[in-house]
Write a structure and sequence with these properties.
The chain is an alpha/beta fold and 580 residues long. It folds into two domains: 309 residues, Glycosidases (TIM Barrel); 164 residues, Jelly Rolls. The protein contains 15 helices and 25 strands. Helix 2 packs across helix 3, helix 7 packs parallel to helix 8 and helix 12 packs across helix 13. The longest helix is centred in the first third of the chain and has 21 residues. The termini are far apart.
Length: 580
């Protein structure tokens, strides 16, 4: 009897788990909203797994030919075909794992966008044993199945995004790994048939999976159908007839199998040119747009708001990012105030402005130097070690988690408060680094005059000039001799705030390691928002310790602000010594 009760309990738990997994239901369009199976509005907060199935040169800091097939050929030239394949197998295994998805959920993301490369799912048309037939490859489907399992376990939606279509869908070659020596998607009926067949195959596999959030059927098409010579990326295209027809054909193929899932479409010109494409031809459709390097004003998204209203269809920002924390916070505030979900780009790369930073190694740096004509050809052993170390560096535990980026996405849009960047506890001899100022908005945790990259709007590529350590507007540089970082390129009126815990009430001497770049440099310090001490600089140039005397600190939380009153200076660290 006890055995029967135990069996019944297990079955009940399984039924409950299954019902919880499916409780959200399929996402679908309801007027201008994306809703779940209960009719509740769903605001997608996601990130794209750029660089996993499809590498782009800038993510690997590769200059010149940045298409994946070119990068692969250059690696092959250094280490041979078998070793190159071993690298790519390791890359695919390490880039995104269960720990990544678990972490994304814990940070606050509720969705994942998978940029798919068609060549992991099917052969290119020129490699098909029988022309017109489709050979299916197991690897891409297995990777997608695993990712879906991890997403389901975390109650997260997975959006499938065809990032590299057969033949390539645009003249921005890196995005789709397009080889211009071969027929493009638009030049080849065989490539279009393969694209349609791939979506039908995906629909057959995932038609009954509610945690597939939708099918983003063609990423960032950029092709001048009417005037390819003068409008190669389709920004001025007025008709877009071939693009519309292909998307209709893909939709029809999906709907033969799958009536459940959202179909997400993107306009020409990197996703934003919908001329000639609308109205929609399916009642369960979402319009995607992409947004980079422009102002975060209502005017910057007015075109998509107007389109949403005109056609009564939901919109989604399917790709954005590659900017500063200030820009990120502004963008999230703007989007969510207008009930627009988003997917950041990308999760990780060799770079500073994403949730995870992947780190290079000396042997990979030799490869980059050789490819840039700045160094000798590395040996095969050095090159192999360099790329395999890079593939190992992809693992979450080997990356640097960028807390400032995550804070800018999830806390700062909704809070004016600051929090410490590090848990600094002040005892006699304690040191706080200048680069470890508080986390928070510009004007609250710090103030910097040049905070973000708005070059599409005003030509200004602002933000952290050093592009290292943190992703705010504050300029930070690295000192390779000491493996440390310092604040530099300051301007009058800027300031930095530090919150810290003091172990014992008392008077302290602070030695500020500073380098006055200009002779007129001046700064002042304020403790706990009371009084201001002006600090005189000695006339000598170079790094020196400025003494800030008789600072009273109370036991518990305190804050200190450094104000730049005049001039350009560099700030290293602050050492606190109790005065007895």
């Amino acid at each position: 009897m006890a055995h029967l009760r135990l069996t019944s309990l297990i079955l009940l738990l399984i039924i409950m788990a299954c019902s919880q997994t499916r409780a959200q239901g399929f996402l679908h369009a309801s007027g201008k909203q994306i809703v779940n199976g209960k009719g509740q509005n769903v605001l997608l907060r996601g990130v794209g797994l750029g660089g996993w199935m499809l590498q782009e040169g800038y993510m690997l800091q590769v200059n010149g030919q940045g298409m994946q097939h070119s990068i692969k050929a250059r690696i092959d030239n250094l280490i041979g075909e078998d070793s190159t394949q071993a690298f790519y197998d390791t890359w695919l295994a390490n880039h995104t794992r269960r720990i990544d998805i678990d972490s994304m959920k814990a940070w606050g993301f509720n969705s994942v966008r998978l940029p798919m490369h068609f060549n992991l799912y099917t052969l290119p048309i020129d490699e098909e044993p029988e022309p017109g037939k489709q050979t299916w490859l197991d690897k891409g489907f297995r990777i997608t199945d695993s990712l879906l399992t991890w997403c389901k376990a975390n109650q997260m939606y997975l959006i499938l995004d065809l990032h590299a279509a057969p033949g390539g869908q645009g003249n921005d070659l890196n995005i789709s790994d397009r080889d211009p020596s071969k027929p493009s998607l638009w030049d080849s009926e065989a490539n279009r048939r393969k694209t349609i067949a791939l979506w039908k195959k995906l629909a057959e596999r995932y038609a009954n999976e509610p945690f597939i959030g939708g099918y983003d059927i063609l990423n960032e098409p950029n092709w001048g159908f009417q005037d390819l010579a003068n409008d190669k990326n389709g920004l001025k295209e007025t008709g877009n007839a071939p693009l519309k027809q292909l998307m209709i054909d893909i939709t029809n193929a999906i709907r033969e199998i799958d009536k459940n899932h959202l179909i997400i479409i993107e306009g020409n010109g990197w996703g934003n040119n919908y001329n000639g494409i609308l109205p929609t031809w399916d009642n369960n459709m979402v319009l995607s747009f992409h947004k980079y390097w422009n102002f975060n004003t209502t005017g910057s998204i007015q075109h998509i708001l107007d389109t949403r209203d005109k056609y009564n269809v939901p919109v989604w920002l399917g790709e954005t990012g590659e900017n500063s924390n200030v820009w990120f916070t502004e963008a999230v505030q703007l989007l969510e105030a207008n009930n627009i979900g988003w997917a950041w780009w990308p999760l990780k790369k060799l770079g500073n402005n994403n949730p995870m930073q992947v780190h290079s190694n000396k042997d990979y740096d030799k490869i980059l130097a050789f490819w840039s004509n700045k160094g000798p050809r590395p040996t095969a052993a050095e090159a192999y070690n360099g790329v395999m170390q890079l593939a190992t560096a992809l693992k979450l535990e080997n990356t640097t988690i960028k807390r400032d980026v995550l804070d800018a996405l999830f806390r700062q849009p909704f809070s004016q408060t600051t929090i410490p960047f590090k848990a600094n506890v002040i005892k006699s001899g304690a040191i706080i680094k200048a680069v470890d100022y508080d986390l928070g908005r510009n004007g609250v945790a710090y103030f910097d005059k040049d905070t973000a990259d708005y070059h599409v709007s005003n030509g200004n590529r602002g933000g952290n000039q050093g592009r290292t350590y943190r992703n705010d507007g504050v300029d930070i540089s690295a000192d390779p001799t000491t493996n440390s970082y310092y604040v530099n390129h300051t301007e009058a009126g800027e300031w930095l705030q530090y919150t810290f815990e003091v172990a014992k009430t008392g008077h302290y001497l602070i030695k500020l390691n500073c380098n006055p770049v200009k002779a007129d440099a001046k700064l002042s310090v304020r403790i706990n928002n009371k009084g201001t001490k002006e600090i005189a600089f000695p006339k000598a140039a170079g790094w020196q310790a400025l003494e800030i005397k008789d600072i009273e600190l109370k036991k518990g939380p305190n804050n200190l602000r450094i104000y730049i009153d005049a001039g350009d200076m560099s700030l290293g660290d602050m050492q606190f010594t109790e005065v007895k």
